[in-house]
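Ticket 4471: requesting a sanity check on a complex prediction with manganese (II) ion. Repro inputs:
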Amino acid sequence: MRHYDLHCHSTRSDGLLSPAAVVRRAAERGVDVLALTDHDEVAGLAEAREAAREAGIEFVNGSELSVTWNGETIHIVALGIDPANDALNAGLAAVRSGRDTRAKRIGDALEVAGIPDAFDGASAFVTSPRLISRTHFARFLIETGYVRDMKEAFKRYLTSGKPGYVPHAWATLAEVVGWIQGAGGQAVIAHPGRYKLTGTQLRALISEFTDLGGDALEVISPSHTAAQFGEFATLARSHGLQASCGTDFHGVGESRLDFGELPPLPAGLDPVWSRW
Ligand code: AMP
Ligand code: MN
Ligand code: MN
Ligand code: MN
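Returned structure tokens:
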């Protein structure tokens, strides 16, 4: 059985390892097929692909796109995209372009909450000039001692309703599915268990995604409990969606599962890779 890991991050977005180091770690830990899925970005794929060739594992071009759906941020993983596709690149650039202004506003909001210099502090953790994310603010809040870890940084400061949260309009679900499939890729709803949606809203999201021609649901993710593996397997089957899996690895000490530690897909699912 080949070990697939189709969701992870490098320094081209908010991961801690370079694209090549991500690939080497995955290969050393038993991953046979890896997709790098940096947020709203494809710039790390060439380096990762070369490293995968050297390490002797298969590599899949990926990205993780930010969507606003009914006021909630949803992530859509793209797999098997052509990173040179013009419409995809224009779309990704548009999504990224909102991040700088948002980050300045997050800095202002934290200042009001009594935390000065957060924008500059977060910027010091940024590893790609093309992308600043809340993860970089979280690292700043940890370094300065306002919180102990990532979880606390998001819970106390960076999620909806908290002092450092700034609402943001990302791309629409239809746009993102269109960009991904127009670039020859498959669209996957990332970590469906992580969204603040009721069961009814989640089923509405999955139905709308299915109607748009979306391809798969990320059934196995460290964001999910074992019970959720079963729930999302059932939802994938009932909507005729394929199933995906990924660690969402960001770096040692920041991720719940390391490469090689993903449980297998539940039986009776059509894997997202079945026609690769
Ligand atoms: P952004 O795209 O700037 O909104 O940042 C989103 C990123 O923050 C996600 O991709 C995760 O890496 C991280 N993140 C979001 N929520 C949490 C959380 N509760 N705990 C740890 N990391 C989180
Ligand atoms: Mn992230
Ligand atoms: Mn995500
Ligand atoms: Mn991710």
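Notes from triage: The beta strands are 4-5, 33-36, 58-69, 72-79, 186-189, 216-220, 242-245. Leaving this open until the requester confirms.
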